[in-house]
Amino acid sequence: MSRSYRIIAPVAAAAAVAATFATVGRADSPPVGALPNGPTSIIQTQKGQLVAFALPKRSAGRVWRIARRFDAAVVRQVSEADVGNSVVLVFKATGSGTTTVAFGLTRGETSKAFESRRFAVRVR
Description:
- This protein is mainly beta.
- It has a single domain, classed as Immunoglobulin-like.
- It is 7% helix and 48% strand.
- The chain has one helix at 12-20; strands at residues 6-8, 40-45, 50-56, 62-66, 75-83, 86-93, 97-107, 113-123.
- The protein has a four-stranded antiparallel sheet, covered by helices on one side. A four-stranded mixed sheet has the order 2-8-7-4, with no helix packed on it.
- The longest helix has 9 residues, at 12-20.
- The chain is globular and about 40 Å long.
């Protein structure tokens, strides 16, 4: 069975989400371990634009977490929110370049990833 996901390119809706919700991270969370194979998408945008990633909500305590470091000189996270049946993470394009934002689906704050999504972001 294939699973679908949505990518919301820089749009006004992303700006509304960014203005409404703040991101809270936990410094004591274990890192996400090995990522299973998952889809990779390429996003192209311009400096100063917002990019939103909509990941499907999952049950049984499973949560999407940023799985790998990404280049904050290219993008930085500005917000995160539950929107309908999706978890939406909004990033701002901060500078020219390319970076990959990888997400792993874990059970709570554990390290084992059950699913993954990767997004190669190219900022002009």
